[in-house]
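Entry type: protein chain
Record version: 2
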Amino acid sequence: MFNLRNSKQFYSGSWEWAEVSFRGIKYRFRIQRDDLIDPIVTGNKLRKLWGYDQKSGWIRHNGILTVGGAYSNHLVAVAAFYSDPRRRVVGIVRGEPNSDSKHLQMCRDYGMELHFISRADYKLKYKYIYENFVTEEFYPMVIPEGGRGAFGMLGFDYAVAGWGDFVPETVVHASATGTTAAGLFKYVRERGLKDTRIEAIAVLKNDLEQKRNIQKIMRGDDPYDPKGNMYWEQENLEKERLEREKYGDEFYEERKKWDEEYDSKFFADRYNIEINSHYIFGGYAKSTPELRDFVTSAKAETGIHFDSIYTGKALYAMLEGFESGRLNPDTTLFYHTGGIG
């Protein structure tokens, strides 16, 4: 099992200077190198798992189960963090049985059992988990996608503490679930940094989902229990079915838009977090020649690994913010969330 005592960067969370050229101009900015925490249980993945591990002692479970896609850094991190032949660790993968990737092979190498589920069935994934895996002999702690949840926020206390006397105006990072943004915001607020803004660069088109995730996480009502997750999932789908039946599909869709507008306004009023969905580059695990060339150039220039799934998109967004004047290089911190090369 992973030994946190060997990870000094996790507890220090310090930043350094970096310089990256963008469209002919070189920008100097602060970067928090959480990619240095560990090459496998990397960056914000370890911060999230640390929280789950700290809270797991009082949860009745005898194994670990988590979910994710074929290119999920989170799946690999869970497999490595909990790698122990005495503990059963299961990964539910969104995709077809013939799906494969370097990430999934690494999961297998660390001893994780992989089970594939179709995208249609993924909507009821916790029902699938409860009915197919939970028994009297195996009652796992469920870690949601990307380490999402209130427990996943806890390790970011050390990240914010590592800033020392520097108070960033904006913290930019790559985001898929909103947990990192929630964790940074929680400890920014607790340390009295009321003017620090968190800018989460969405790596897939799910900005509303991330906002709702953040609200749930901040309330602490994101269930980690397989049965609790199943009931929550089923209640949401049943509620949708009844409302469509009562009001009709057309009115339901209109009402859904009203709810989304209200949620977005409520979110903006309450949280100093922006979910920036303008740098998706085609979607999750997708890229463009421009982004790939940029990531290759940034790595060659800095010696720091950026990937085209997560951190490269966030870095591109931040540098374009510098170019337009929307962000100030002197007061912006780039939080490197890590990732597998």
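Comment: The mean pLDDT is 87.
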